[in-house]
Q: What sequence folds into this?
């Protein structure tokens, strides 16, 4: 029986990816574990391994194809002893095949040391059964959330996405139909509660500029994902902002003392702490001390996290990525520093694994190195907080009734007001400020 190879889900939130390269050609024999293709997500390039043994009978999606949907049929293998031509002609439902045969496993590129996610984990976002089998229904995570908020039964919705998958527009249509049928508004959702102003079309925008006076640079997957998530965040998360100034003088003195005493290996210190390393640690300890703020909002529950997993925004060509320092409240400053240097380097090479940048309980965005004094960052759900860090600069301050000069850093905490209200956010920011201004507390 022909073996269908489908587009794997390389992360729980992945809905599509780019098939950047085939490493096999039609007629090649493959065995389980052989690397057969490279898939590019919005943040990383992953290798795909064969799960079954066979001969590549037909490649259905050529390399370089963008926007290939998860679970879409991309190639066919002829099983051992099977006629290759007959197998190549079998381009039946990828939906059925994916329910019977595991999708290829994703593995790190050779330069990565992390082990490959197991095939089962790679399929965590993929539908498990077809609608006809009466089990789980094909639907996107956003569609499921909107359906739950609107009180819509997914089984009653006809999906218009790939392979009958229920997507956002299907839920919006179902809500509109319910309103028409009952003569009253259905339960409101973030997407359907109020009309959303539509952006000008590409044609309308380009008409404002003289033809030939610009170049068109297509959006890559990362930029599309960033744009989508930022719009969703600002439309669905009620942002609330709090700002404090932190005195850095004691921290800078302690940093210099610690860096000066770092052990040397081959003439180089084994660590070199940055101000940002202290910021990460201080934020992690503040969340430990104010556990009610270490939370995520869902429509049914408040998710209270046990550890401070701090995402750190790293600028890379074409956008940014947020590698996560897991359990940062338990790690020393030197461990945080070396871990961040490693992840930042791999992030810029697009070599991070999804588990290294997805999730987390909060985030830090530091633009101080660019001379930015103060800014407000956009929350990255499911986080309920993000800390925007400005430059440390000498400013006049009043100490003990007298004018003095101190190195001051302004930080702004953005909170999801559903999960972290003003008073709780102020408590969290106060704890952070205390650790920054009395940094010895981060060493004990």
A:
């Amino acid at each position: 029986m022909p073996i269908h190879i489908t587009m794997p889900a390389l992360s729980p939130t992945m809905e599509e990816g780019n098939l950047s390269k085939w490493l096999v050609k039609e007629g090649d024999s493959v065995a389980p574990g052989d690397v057969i293709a490279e898939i590019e997500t919005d943040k990383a390039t992953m290798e795909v391994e064969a799960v079954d043994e066979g001969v590549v009978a037909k490649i259905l999606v050529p390399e370089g194809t963008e926007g290939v949907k998860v679970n879409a049929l991309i190639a066919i293998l002829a099983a051992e002893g099977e006629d290759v031509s007959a197998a190549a002609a079998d381009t039946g439902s990828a939906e059925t095949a994916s329910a019977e045969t595991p999708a290829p496993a994703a593995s790190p590129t050779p330069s990565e040391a992390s082990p490959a996610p197991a095939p089962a984990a790679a399929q965590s976002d993929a539908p498990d059964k077809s609608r006809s089998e009466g089990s789980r229904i094909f639907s996107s995570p956003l569609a499921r959330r909107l359906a739950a908020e609107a009180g819509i039964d997914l089984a009653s919705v006809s999906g218009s996405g790939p392979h009958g998958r229920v997507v956002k527009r299907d839920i919006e249509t179902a809500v509109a139909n319910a309103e028409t049928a009952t003569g009253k508004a259905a339960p409101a959702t973030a997407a359907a509660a109020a009309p959303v102003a539509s952006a000008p079309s590409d044609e309308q925008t380009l008409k404002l500029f003289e033809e030939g006076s610009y170049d068109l640079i297509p959006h890559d997957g990362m930029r599309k994902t960033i744009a989508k998530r930022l719009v969703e965040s600002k439309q669905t998360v009620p942002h609330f902002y709090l700002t404090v100034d932190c005195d850095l003088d004691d921290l800078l003195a302690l940093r210099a003392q610690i860096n000066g005493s770092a052990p040397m290996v081959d003439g180089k210190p084994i660590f070199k702490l940055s101000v940002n390393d202290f910021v990460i640690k201080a934020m992690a300890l503040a969340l430990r001390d104010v556990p009610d703020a270490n939370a995520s909002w869902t429509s049914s529950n408040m998710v209270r996290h046990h550890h401070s997993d701090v995402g750190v925004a790293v600028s890379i060509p074409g956008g940014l990525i947020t590698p996560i320092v897991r359990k940062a409240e338990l790690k020393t400053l030197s461990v945080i520093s070396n871990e961040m240097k490693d992840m930042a380097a791999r992030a810029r090479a697009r070599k991070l694994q999804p588990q290294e940048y997805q999730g987390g309980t909060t985030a830090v965005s530091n633009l101080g190195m660019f001379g930015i004094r103060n800014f407000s960052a956009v929350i990255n759900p499911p986080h309920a907080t993000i800390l925007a860090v400005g430059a440390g600069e000498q400013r006049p301050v009043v100490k003990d009734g007298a004018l003095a000069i101190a190195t001051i850093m302004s930080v702004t905490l953005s909170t999801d007001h559903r999960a972290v209200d003003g008073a709780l956010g102020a408590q969290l920011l106060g704890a952070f400020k205390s650790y920054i201004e009395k940094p010895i507390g981060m060493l004990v």
